[in-house]
Amino acid sequence: MKYLFPLVAVIVLARIAWVGSTIPGMQNVFGIDVPYAALILFICGFCWRVIYWAKSPVPFKIPTTCGQGYSLSWIKRDKLEAPVNTTEVVGRMFMEIVFFRSLWRNTKANIQPGPVLTYKSTRWLWFFGILFHYSMLIIVLRHLRLFVEPVPFLIDALGALDGLTFNPTPELSVYITDVLILCGLVALLLRRFLLRPVRYISLANDYFPLFLLIGIAISGISMRYFLRSGVDIIAIKKLAVGLATFNPEITTNIAPIFYTHLFLVSCLLAYFPFSKLMHMGGVFMSPTRDMANNSRMKRHINPWNPDIKPHSYASYEDEFREDMVEQGLPVEKELEKAED
């Protein structure tokens, strides 16, 4: 099964962190060395992928459009789906990145008895995608309070808004995003299990990030609500601030669930630049999205065109005429005439 190996891999990674963190002296490895190594790999890998994409030639205008393009002044056009200038491209990218506009417009084709080709909306996919991404964003922002002291007001306010109970003690609050992120991840995973066409094209590297994210969410939720024994928030805060200021220190024993959670997050960071999760950066580099649909108004010249000296066919034949005649290839000038 294509999903079995990724599932086992995530379980093994979690087990390694749980058992390894109980070995004396290994807390520094899982709490300091691994996070730093993962962060370096994430930054270097992310930059490498972006630079690699930026160097790719774009010889043609290839924006994807699904609306009326610019033509006559009295014909209404779609400024977001067929942008012709930078402002409209920025508007299109904003709607795509913030609201997942293309996923909202996405449809699924089905063949009904007859046969009849039908199309239906897949906005449930858009809903669960939004649910996961924005829950993840809020959770990451909430975690910033562990890395800074004093905690900014906006971070505290975000945590209060996210909590089901506006309690002055954050430890007593139940965060809405903890529930929503699991709902979003489980729905995206079930989509790959239950929809036959999606299951057919899904590979192990499609399941692994989902299982890894679910493992991170479960370990974090367990640490907060169920396995609180031995989770010293003061020691965790001190370690997090130390990591952020490059002066980390582990002074007390922290429960293995914390190191499991941190290790899975580190694995996600290290894996990120080499996975499909790089769509986070790739959406900004996609010529189908970030180019204006103005090929009839402005000539597109590939900025990556190399400066090559022209080599005409006549020059090519002058250079290789003897070899061409020897191989029986036709030439425009006979060898004797060329020598004369």
UniProtKB/TrEMBL annotation:
Membrane association type: Multi-pass membrane protein
Domain NarG-like: residue ranges: 122-280
One GO MF term: heme binding
InterPro entries: DsrM, Heme-iron_electron_transfer, NarG-like_domain, NarG-like_sf
Location, primary (coarse class): membrane
An annotated GO BP: anaerobic electron transport chain
GO cellular component: plasma membrane
Transmembrane segments: 35-54, 124-144, 172-195, 207-227, 254-274
Tree of life domain: Bacteria
Keyword Ribonucleoprotein: no
Keyword entries, A-Z: Cell membrane, Electron transport, Membrane, Oxidoreductase, Transmembrane, Transmembrane helix, Transport
SUPFAM superfamilies: Respiratory nitrate reductase 1 gamma chain (SSF103501)
Cell inner membrane found in the keyword field: no
Location in the cell: Cell membrane
Record NCBIfam families: cytob_DsrM (NF038037)
Protein name as it appears in the record: Sulfate reduction electron transfer complex DsrMKJOP subunit DsrM
Gene: dsrM
